[in-house]
Write a structure and sequence with these properties.
The complex is a heterodimer of chains A (247) and B (410). By secondary structure, chain A is an alpha/beta fold. Chain A contains eight helices and eleven strands. The radius of gyration of chain B is 33 Å and the shape is elongated. The chains are: A alpha/beta (247), B alpha+beta (410). The interface between A and B is medium-sized, with 30 and 26 residues. The structure holds adenosine-5'-triphosphate and magnesium ion. Chain B: Keywords: Cell membrane, Membrane, Transmembrane, Transmembrane helix.
Chain lengths: 247, 410
C-alpha cells in the first residue's frame, strides 16, 4: 500500500476536476449550556467528482454528523456547504427534496428501513418519489436487490431480515436511483467478510463508473479500498491522504 | 409522483398497521353510531307520542261534566249533546257523540274481566275517536234507537275474554244483561307508559243507560271538528251553545286546567291537542336529553380518535424522516398522510352509519328508533373532520422537520 501526503499532487487534481462537495469551516454544536457538544469544530473539505473517499475516526469524532450535513439531512451551525457549486443553505424544501432524491444515495449507519414494508417496496421508494412507473420501478428494485445478493428476500419485511441483510437492502436502496454521489455511513459495519467484499465490489464498480463515493468506516481494510483517506478526531480533520486504492 | 400513486401508498400505510387502523376506525365507528342511534331513539319516541295523538283523534273536542250529583240542571244531557250538532250555530262541528262510561265486570263462559271503560255512545264515536274495526261491524243508529244490546270490544278485552276464539257473534254478560259481540276494534298503537287504549268496550248509548248507568246525564260529549285547523273555531261555537243552554254568562270559558274558580262552568272542554301538548313536551325534553348524551359520546369518541391519530404520527415521525431523506417532498408526504386519515375516518364513519342503520331496526327500550338524516350528516361530518384534522396537522408538523430531526424523534 502506497500512501502519499496531499500536496501539490492533490491541488492539481482538484484543479482538473470540478469539486462535487465543497465545505468550509463547518461547525456543529448540539445542545446548550452544560450539555453543549461540539460535534464539528471547523471542517473544510473538497471532494472532486469521481473521487472515492473513506472517512475514519474514533467513535464520537463527528463522522456521522459530517455525513448528515453532506447528505442534506442536517444543517451546520456555521460554515458553508456547496454541492455541485450550489450553496445548499439557499435551497427550499422542494429543491432539497429533489437533491436528496436525484443526486444523493445515502446509506444510514442504522439502516432506516420502513417497518412492516417489504424489502422490494423499501428499495422502490426513492424511485417512486422520482416519479418512475411502477413496473419499471419494480424491475429496477429487484435488479438492485439482486446486486446485493438478496433477490430471494424481496418480499421479506425488515424484521424478518438479519442485520447484515437489512444493511444490504439499505445499500440497494441507495444505489437504485443510480445517484452521482453516494454517501455511506458504515455500509459494512454489520457484514461478514464475504458480504463486505460484495458491497465493496459494488462500490468499486460504481467508482469505476465515475460516481463519487464518500464512505465512513472503522475497518482499515475497507478504508484501504478508497482513493483518499480522511481521518477525523474530535470534530477536526487530522489527516487527509491519497492512496492508490489497490485491491 | 401521481395522486393515484400517493393514494396507493396511503392504502399500503393503512394496511401495514392493521391493529392501529382498526382501533382508529373503531373509535370513529362507535362515535358515529352512538350519535345516530341515540338521536334516532329520541326521534322514535317523539313519533310514538305523535302517533298516539293521532290515535286519539286530532279533530276532537271533549266536553266533560264537572258537576257532582249528576242530576243538577247544569249537567250535560243527551239533549244538550244533540243541540251541539247545529249547522247554523256550529258550522265547524261534524259529529257529536254523547258518552256514558262505567267500569263493570264482563263475563263470558266463566271468564271474568273488569274492563277499564265500558262506553255507551252513538256510532259516530268510532269515526271521531279514530277507532276503526278489525273484525265484525260497528253498531248502527238503529241499534241505538232500539236499545239493542250489542257491543264492540277493544283488543285487550277480546283477548282476555275469548283468548284465541273469534268473539264476533258470542255473548257476554255485563251488569246482569247479555250483550252480543258484533265487532272488535283494531289495535291502537300505544306509546309505552300510557294507559292501555285497547282496554275498553263500546255499546249503544241507550242499551248502556238501560242496563248499567240509568237515564241520567252523560259523562262527556265527544265533538268532532270538520278539520284539524277548525278545532279552535268548533270549540268556541260549542262553548257558546253550552253557555246559552246552561244559562251561563256569555264570557264563561271552561278550557283545560283553569276550572278552579267559583264562577267556573260546570263542564270542562278540552281538545286532543291540549290534552297531549304536555306529552309532546315530555318527548321533546327526552330528545334533547338524548341529543346531549349523544353529543358527549361524539366528543369522547373524537378525543379517542385524536389520541390514536397523535400516537400514530409520533410513531410515524421516523418514517416521515426516512421518506424525506429519500427525497419525498413535503407535499407528497402531507397528501399521503391526509389520504390515510381520510380513508380511516371515512371508512370508520361509513361503518358507523351502517352499524346505526342496523341497530335502528331493533326496538331499543321499547322505542322503535327513527333515523334523523341530519344527525347522520352531523356525526359523520364531525368525526371525519376530527380524523382529518388530527391526522394531517401532526403529519404536517413532522413533514416540516429536518430529516435528521424526524429520524431521531422519540
Ligand atoms: N442529536 C444529538 N444531540 C446531541 N449530541 C449529539 C447528537 N448527535 C451526535 N451528538 C454528539 O456529537 C458527537 C459526534 O457524533 P457522531 O454521531 O457524529 O459520531 P460518529 O463519529 O459518527 O461516531 P460513531 O463512530 O460511534 O458512529 C458525539 O459526541 C455525540 O454524542
Ligand atoms: Mg456514526
Amino acid at each position: 500500500m502506497t500512501l502519499h501526503l496531499v500536496g501539490h499532487h492533490h491541488r492539481t487534481a482538484a484543479a482538473r476536476t470540478r469539486p462535487v462537495l465543497d465545505v468550509k469551516d463547518l461547525t456543529k454544536v448540539y445542545g446548550q449550556g452544560e450539555a453543549t457538544v461540539h460535534a464539528l469544530r471547523g471542517v473544510s473539505l473538497t471532494v472532486a467528482a469521481g473521487d472515492y473517499v473513506a472517512i475514519m475516526g474514533s467513535s464520537g469524532s463527528g463522522k456521522s454528523t459530517l455525513m448528515n450535513i453532506l447528505g442534506c439531512l442536517d444543517v451546520p451551525s456555521t460554515g458553508t456547504y456547496h454541492l455541485d457549486g450550489v450553496d445548499v443553505s439557499r435551497l427550499d424544501d422542494a429543491r432539497l427534496a429533489l437533491v436528496r432524491n436525484r443526486r444523493i444515495g445515502f446509506v444510514f449507519q442504522s439502516f432506516n428501513l420502513i417497518p412492516r414494508t417489504s424489502a422490494v417496496a423499501n428499495v422502490e421508494l426513492p424511485l417512486a418519489y422520482a416519479g418512475i412507473k411502477p413496473a419499471e420501478r419494480r424491475r429496477r428494485a429487484l435488479a438492485a436487490l439482486d446486486m446485493v445478493g438478496l433477490a430471494g428476500r424481496a418480499d421479506h419485511e425488515p424484521n424478518q431480515l438479519s442485520g447484515g441483510q437489512q444493511q444490504r437492502v439499505a445499500v440497494a436502496r441507495a444505489l437504485v436511483t443510480e445517484p452521482a454521489l453516494i454517501l455511506a455511513d458504515e455500509p459494512t459495519g454489520n457484514l461478514d467478510s464475504r458480504s463486505t467484499e460484495e458491497v465493496l465490489g459494488i462500490l468499486d464498480q460504481l467508482h469505476a463508473a465515475g460516481r463519487t463515493i464518500v464512505m465512513i468506516t472503522h475497518e482499515t481494510e475497507v478504508a484501504a479500498r478508497a482513493r483518499r483517506l480522511v481521518t477525523l478526531f474530535d470534530g477536526r480533520i487530522t489527516t487527509d491522504v491519497r492512496q492508490d486504492g489497490a485491491r | 409522483m401521481s395522486l393515484l400513486e400517493i393514494l396507493r401508498f396511503a392504502g399500503r400505510g393503512v394496511a401495514a398497521n392493521k391493529l392501529r387502523s382498526a382501533l382508529t376506525m373503531l373509535g370513529i365507528l362507535i362515535g358515529v353510531a352512538a350519535v345516530i342511534l341515540l338521536v334516532a331513539v329520541g326521534n322514535g319516541s317523539a313519533q310514538a307520542v305523535n302517533r298516539s295523538i293521532e290515535a286519539l283523534g286530532t279533530n276532537t273536542i271533549t266536553v266533560s261534566s264537572t258537576a257532582r250529583g249528576g242530576t243538577t240542571p247544569s249537567a250535560l244531557t243527551v239533549d244538550i249533546a244533540q243541540s251541539l250538532h247545529d249547522p247554523a250555530l256550529a258550522p265547524d262541528v261534524r259529529a257529536v257523540s254523547p258518552v256514558v262510561s262505567s267500569a263493570p265486570t264482563m263475563t263470558h263462559a266463566g271468564t271474568e274481566y273488569p274492563v277499564a271503560q265500558f262506553l255507551g255512545t252513538h256510532p259516530t264515536y268510532f269515526g271521531s275517536s279514530n277507532s276503526p274495526l278489525a273484525a265484525g261491524a260497528a253498531f248502527t243508529d238503529q241499534d241505538v234507537a232500539q236499545g239493542r244490546r250489542v257491543v264492540v270490544l277493544g283488543r285487550t278485552v277480546a283477548t282476555e275474554l275469548f283468548a284465541d276464539t273469534d268473539p264476533v257473534g258470542q255473548q257476554v254478560t255485563v251488569g246482569g244483561a247479555l250483550f252480543t259481540v258484533v265487532g272488535v276494534l283494531a289495535e291502537k298503537s300505544s306509546a309505552s307508559g300510557f294507559a292501555d287504549p285497547d282496554d275498553l268496550a263500546v255499546a249503544p248509548l241507550t242499551a248502556v243507560q238501560q242496563t248499567i248507568t240509568g237515564y241520567g246525564p252523560v259523562n262527556s260529549i265527544l265533538v268532532e271538528a270538520t278539520g284539524p285547523d277548525r278545532v279552535n273555531a268548533a270549540q268556541q261555537q260549542v262553548t257558546q251553545i253550552l253557555n246559552q243552554r246552561l244559562d251561563l254568562p256569555a264570557g264563561t270559558t271552561a278550557t283545560g286546567r283553569g276550572g278552579a274558580g267559583a264562577d267556573a262552568a260546570p263542564y270542562r272542554i278540552q281538545n286532543a291537542a291540549q290534552l297531549l301538548a304536555t306529552r309532546t313536551e315530555t318527548a321533546q325534553t327526552f330528545t334533547v336529553l338524548l341529543g346531549t348524551v349523544a353529543g358527549i359520546s361524539l366528543l369522547v369518541g373524537g378525543i379517542g380518535i385524536t389520541n390514536i391519530m397523535l400516537v400514530t404520527v409520533t410513531e410515524r415521525t421516523r418514517e416521515i424522516g426516512i421518506r424525506k431523506a429519500l427525497g419525498a417532498p413535503r407535499r407528497t408526504i402531507l397528501t399521503q398522510f391526509l389520504a390515510e386519515a381520510t380513508m380511516l375516518s371515512v371508512l370508520g364513519g361509513g361503518l358507523g352509519v351502517a352499524a346505526a342503520l342496523i341497530g335502528s331496526r331493533f326496538t331499543i327500550v321499547g322505542v322503535q328508533p327513527v333515523i334523523v338524516p341530519s344527525s347522520v350528516a352531523l356525526a359523520l361530518g364531525v368525526s371525519v373532520a376530527i380524523g382529518l384534522f388530527f391526522g394531517s396537522v401532526p403529519a404536517s408538523r413532522a413533514a416540516g422537520l429536518r430529516p435528521i430531526d424526524a429520524l431521531r424523534y422519540e
